[in-house]
Write a structure and sequence with these properties.
- The radius of gyration is 21 Å and the shape is globular.
- The longest helix is centred in the C-terminal third of the chain and has 28 residues, at 276-303.
- Helix 2 (12-23) packs antiparallel against helix 6 (124-134).
- The chain has a seven-stranded parallel sheet, with helices on both faces.
- Helix content is 48%, strand content 12%.
- The protein has 339 residues and is of the alpha/beta class.
Length: 339
């Protein structure tokens, strides 16, 4: 039995091996993923994001517990900061979610950001597809919690939960990071703390002002040059007609978590009814195609860089101002597309 067939049979060791190979960009890994791809698209993908210290992992842990009690199988992708020494994930999720480590209905995978902005790893989408093909009913994607660039999760998830917490200035962060644009469900966690009601009221107020805030935040991100592909190809359709609810939780005690799940299910039902889920997944497919095209074009260009004297020689010419980047790249690509 081949690796892809073993993954579809639910074999965890095969899935872990393929995930590692995809993350390391090993030869043959994408061919195995291609065999799995027709068997994806069935899992409910839920993104959980928010600032460091907001309790995302505790909430994720509580959501896993409730899904398992309901008989659903769960895959978890926990994107952790990269170790400065090994480049690998710090594996904080393995510590935080130990109660599920021996549950055969739960598969937890850590990924390192490896310097990627946006709160996700480059291979996060590939790992989600592997978990989907394994037959997991729900896939939870917990982002790294980088604050300002925590917006890429909307490109992957069917529903995005944004976690806030009293006392950390999340109301300011929400505007700066653009999470008002991406949130389908807001959670005010640690709601037993002083200031929880104030945080809830401020979120409600900002939702009323969302249109102007979203337009400004979007313009700022575009000005910072976050995207090299025309933005119309990268935008994720919003949840038309959906007003993000705000749920208070104390995730450590399990309080309010069932209500969060109920709101997530309501959002999914709304998206299915309005056609938003298909639109969101179609946008994801478009981005996957464009991302792979970028990657493969760069690999092809690097394989042909000797035709212009090599990358270092090209760099030296530009650094000395003997030539300019546009002219050098045009000459380089002329050789690439001739090859």
């Amino acid at each position: 039995m081949g690796l892809a067939e073993r993954v579809m049979a639910g074999e965890e060791r095969a899935a872990a091996r393929l995930m590692r190979d995809l993350d390391d960009n090993m030869p043959g890994a994408r061919e195995q993923l291609a065999l799995l791809y027709p068997h994806t698209g069935r899992a409910q993908i839920i993104g959980i994001t928010g600032n460091p210290g907001s309790g995302k992992s505790t909430l994720t842990n509580a959501i896993i517990r409730l899904h398992r009690q309901a008989g659903r199988t769960v895959g978890v992708v926990a994107v952790d900061p990269s170790s400065p020494f090994s480049g690998g994930a710090i594996l904080g999720d393995r510590i935080r979610m130990m109660e599920h480590a021996v549950d055969p209905g739960v598969f937890i995978r850590s990924l390192a950001t490896r310097g990627t902005l946006g709160g996700l790893s480059r291979s996060t989408g590939d790992v989600v597809n592997v978990l989907d093909a394994m037959g997991k009913d729900v896939v939870l994607v917990e982002t790294v919690g980088v604050g300002q660039d925590e917006i890429d999760i909307v490109k992957l998830a069917d529903t995005v939960i944004v976690v806030c917490v009293p006392g950390l200035g999340d109301e300011v962060q929400a505007i700066k990071a653009g999470v008002l644009e991406i949130a389908d469900v807001f959670v005010v966690n640690k709601a037993d703390r002083e200031g929880a009601d104030r945080t809830l009221r401020e979120l409600e107020m900002m939702l009323h002002l969302r249109d102007a805030t979203v337009a400004r935040a979007h313009a700022e991100r575009m000005a910072r040059g976050h995207h090299s592909i025309p933005t119309e190809y990268l935008q994720t359709p919003p949840s038309e007609g959906w007003e993000p609810p705000i749920v208070k939780t104390v995730a450590q005690k399990g309080e309010g978590v069932a209500e969060v799940m109920a709101k997530v299910d309501q959002h999914r039902a709304h998206m299915v009814e309005t056609g938003g889920l298909d639109a969101r997944r179609r946008a994801r497919a478009r981005r996957e195609v464009l991302s792979l095209a970028q990657q493969q074009l760069l690999e092809r260009a690097l394989a042909n860089v000797a035709a212009v004297g090599g990358l270092e020689a090209l760099t030296d010419r530009v650094a000395r101002r003997d030539s300019d980047p546009s002219r050098e790249v045009a000459a380089w690509l002329a050789h690439v597309f001739k090859a």
